[in-house]
Design brief:
Distance between the termini: 26 Å
Structural class: mainly beta
Number of strands: 11
Strand content: 35-45%
Number of helices: 3
Order of helices and strands: EHEEEEEEEHEEEH
């Protein structure tokens, strides 16, 4: 999947106002494009993000947007997603938050740090975190998936984000919802 990405902190101020960047009508044509894994500092990164000129003061966050259509929406029972991120992220569909990992409750801004570092090994950094997207948020036509990925510190040596989305039928939905329940119980998220 091709995503649009913004990783330049000096451009964040106007973009973050009132959550405009996570709405479908926002113009992201000036953002660069790439495919995941997005990030820096790890060998499996496909699209390298900038971390600025100062390794002691890297950007806290990066923004991602992609558009999608749900094929045969009437056949989908569950729309499931899996997020891989280092260190934290919030996922939005059509402007509404659907999943949060390793970030504090409340408003998330461009300068919000993740609660803790993920890692230190690549295996734990690439754990997939499952979540369900309410079908009530999905349009018959074009939809927008937006993600803000966040660091735990401004000196972290790596950042990563990748996301997969699945339209699931009856048979697949039960297995996926069990995966979500298991993840919630194991991680203590309760959701």
């Amino acid at each position: 999947t091709v995503w649009r990405c913004l990783d330049r902190p000096r451009l964040f101020a106007g973009v973050w106002k009132k959550g405009l960047w996570r709405r479908r009508e926002f113009d992201d044509s000036s953002w660069y494009q790439g495919t995941g894994v997005f990030g820096y500092g790890d060998a499996d990164v496909t699209t390298v993000l900038s971390y600025g000129d100062n390794p002691q003061q890297k950007p806290v966050s990066a923004l991602f947007r992609t558009r999608f259509r749900l094929p045969n929406p009437s056949n989908a029972v569950v729309l499931g997603g899996r997020l891989c991120c280092d260190d934290g992220a919030v996922v939005y569909v059509n402007g509404t938050e659907v999943f949060r990992f390793n970030l504090p409750r409340g408003e998330v801004r461009h300068d919000t740090f993740a609660l803790r570092s993920v890692g230190p090994d690549l295996k734990s950094e690439r754990n997939w975190r499952p979540f369900v997207v309410p079908l009530s948020l999905v349009n018959d036509g074009e939809n927008l998936m937006a993600v803000s990925a966040h660091q735990a510190t401004s000196t972290s040596g790596d950042l990563a984000m990748s996301l997969e989305l699945y339209a699931l039928d009856d048979k697949e939905a039960a297995d996926f919802q069990e995966e979500v329940k298991t993840y919630a119980a194991d991680s203590g998220t309760g959701s």
